[in-house]
Amino acid sequence: MSNLQKTLRLFRTQHRFILPLSSVNIRNIQGTVKDYNHSEVRTDIKIASVVTENEDHQYEQNVKDVILERALEFVSQTGWSVESLSAGAKSAGYPTITHGLFPNGGGDLIHYFNIKCNQQLAEQMKLWPQEDLKGGSKVPAKFIENAIVTRLLMIKPYKSTWPKAMAIQTLPNNVPNGLATLLSLVDDICYHSGDRSVDFNWYIRRVGLAGIYKAAELFYLTDNSQENNATRSFVSSRIRDAQVIQGALNLNPVTAAPQTLTAAFVTAKNILGINTLK
After folding, report:
1. What is the pLDDT averaged over residues 88-113?
2. Where is the COQ9 C-terminal domain (predicted)?
């Protein structure tokens, strides 16, 4: 157990509430006393040890979530950094040393923010009108456009610091988390827009949508238009381009597949930040 984990356990112990006597299982206590000199007690001890470990893990996760949420309040001042995590820990009433719970520093804070935004978007999409999702194979372009723009606007409170966040996500330790949240985002958008495909198009749509989102993200950072209309127009144009590619694939999949795969591969490289590799 690390020193940080020991500190958290001590902090938890000092702030633990004592359970009411009525909540204690008397039968279990009697069984333990009865079997005190038998091997069953060792089983009880092992089970208790596992329960304690699970409780400690859950407690640690709860501490992390509280600190990360509070740390977001300091991003505008100190960026996506260890300083924001320390300030978040202090604001939540934990020792500032608990920033050590985040080995990737600001990368973990960005990851938390991305997960939070993805979850919020998924909940919103469940409530959106479903009229645009009807019509057979027709791509619900408006639904996808709204989803991308809605997700981009969640960055607005941190727009000035987001270029740094994007750079942090390209660091080797942060690439897996960044890619995971991006794929989760596009999968949610495809799912809620009615995509239930299980064929080759499943991959093409998601890789293509990931490319559109990352391109729109860069565009949004330089967009100063009223109500971000320029970003919406940009997203709409990229979706139309994707529909043309998808249409070509549907008409002649044998000849279109190699070009589409090449485009998908280049997009994936750009997403991972390895487009300069030879």
Report:
1. 92
2. 175-244
pTM of the entire predicted model: 0.73
Closest CA to 8 of 87, 100, 73: 100
What is the C-alpha to C-alpha distance for residues 180 and 149, in angstroms, rounded to an integer? 20
What's the gap between Cα 263 and its chain centre? 26
pLDDT in tens, 61-72: 888 999 999 999
Give CA–CA dist 20/100, Å, rounded: 34
Domain ranges of the chain: 3-101, 106-272
Amino acid at 85: L
CB 267 within 8 A of CB 179: no
Give the CA distances from residue 97 to residues 77, 86, 139, 187, in Å, rounded to whole numbers and listed in that order.
Answer: 20, 7, 50, 37
The CATH class that applies to domain 106-272 reads: mainly alpha
H helices of 72-125, where?
Answer: 75-78, 82-91, 106-125
Q: What six digits make up the tokens of 175?
A: 């690439």
Q: Please state, in angstroms and rounded to a whole number, the distance separating the CA atoms of residues 235 and 228.
A: 11
pLDDT given at position 33 = 40
DSSP classification of residue 134: -
**Type of residue found at 30:** Q
Which of 14-18, 48-52, 54-58, 152-156 shows the lowest mean pLDDT across its residues?
14-18
CB–CB of 9/94 below 8 Å? no
